């Protein structure tokens, strides 16, 4: 258990430090926004580029991981939507927002730093694979469904769906993570070597992502609402931390039934751990146009705090089975 706490604790100590310094006024929200932009637009893209460009293409494209993580995410999305509609009686749009919180992991800001400590040999590979699934499949699908639901039914709704799909594609084409992913794939496929000064510069940016990204998470928790809505968002947090990794684990177990070779243990554990992370930090921002920001923010706080216990338990279980 001490070994598990040694893995998980540094991440949450940095989160607590980010929260405490922001609460004390050492850093303001505007400064945290600048830190976050640096991580999202420079440090993480450099990390994703290195994760792909420095490996052979066969080590990057892992069909079993992509298939299982996508299947688990889609199963969680569909199950969460159905539960929100039938059990909680929510509208179509609110059910989609509940599902978004349950199937979208914070792979970059929390997932990668924890994998770097727990499974360093596959951490960058898992991050690159998650970038593909989350930014090319799950998030665009959710955004298109939400945008379509916000428009009128009928012909205008169909046109709205097509427009939303095109807008999502344009947004993806400008996403620094996707650009870094494609650039890394090109370098890997062509087996190119970056000039040493350029390669070291990219590596220096990549190394800046770990602690800073987690620190930003802590700072952004300051001022987010929790009282009064915690019980309403508890199902979102529980679904994200418990059911999403279960769905991915079941999908991984089903790979041999589909004729797909099972993953190596470390990569399999990495997929389950990535699914067990709290939801992405931009969840409240994505929910803003639909009047769901307060609940989304409360769910983010609850899931981030509770994940200390759930991730510790999951790491303990993995160690016991191993």
From TrEMBL:
It comes from the Bacteria. The chain crosses the membrane at residues 6-26, 38-58, 64-84, 176-196, 208-229, 241-261, 267-286, 298-319. GO terms for biological process: transmembrane transport. InterPro entries: Mem_transp_PIN-like. One of its GO terms (cellular component) is membrane. Keywords: Cell membrane, Membrane, Transmembrane, Transmembrane helix, Transport. It is found in: Membrane. It is a multi-pass membrane protein. The keyword Membrane applies. Coiled coil: none annotated. PANTHER family: AUXIN EFFLUX CARRIER FAMILY PROTEIN, SLR1864 PROTEIN. This is AEC family transporter.
């Amino acid at each position: 258990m001490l070994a598990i706490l040694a893995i998980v604790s540094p991440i949450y100590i940095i989160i607590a430090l980010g929260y405490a310094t922001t609460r004390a006024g050492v850093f303001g929200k505007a400064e945290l926004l600048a830190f976050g932009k640096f991580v999202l637009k420079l440090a993480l893209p450099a990390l994703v580029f290195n994760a792909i460009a420095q490996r052979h293409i066969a080590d990057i494209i892992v069909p079993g991981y992509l298939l299982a993580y996508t299947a688990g995410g889609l199963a969680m999305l569909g199950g969460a939507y159905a539960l929100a509609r039938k059990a909680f009686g929510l509208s179509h749009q609110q059910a989609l927002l509940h599902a978004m919180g349950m199937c979208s992991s914070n792979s970059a800001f929390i997932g990668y730093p924890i994998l770097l400590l727990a499974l360093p040999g596959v951490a960058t590979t898992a991050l690159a694979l998650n970038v593909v699934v989350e930014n090319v499949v799950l998030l665009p699908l959710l955004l298109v469904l939400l945008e379509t639901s916000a428009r009128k039914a009928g012909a205008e709704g169909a046109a709205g769906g097509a427009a939303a799909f095109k807008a999502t594609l344009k947004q993806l084409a400008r996403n620094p993570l996707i650009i870094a992913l494609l650039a890394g794939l090109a370098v890997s496929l062509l087996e190119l070597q970056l000039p040493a000064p350029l390669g070291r510069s990219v590596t220096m940016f990549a190394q800046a992502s770990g602690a800073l990204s987690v620190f930003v998470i802590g700072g952004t928790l300051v001022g987010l609402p929790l009282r009064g809505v915690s019980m309403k968002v508890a199902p979102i947090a529980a679904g994200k931390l418990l059911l999403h990794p279960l769905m991915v684990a079941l999908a991984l177990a089903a790979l041999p039934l589909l004729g797909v070779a099972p993953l190596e243990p470390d990569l399999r554990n990495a997929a389950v751990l990535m699914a067990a992370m709290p939801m992405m930090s931009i969840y409240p921002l994505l929910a803003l146009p639909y009047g769901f920001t307060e609940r989304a923010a409360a769910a983010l706080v609850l899931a981030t705090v509770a994940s200390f216990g759930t991730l510790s338990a999951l790491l303990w279980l993995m160690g016991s089975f191993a």
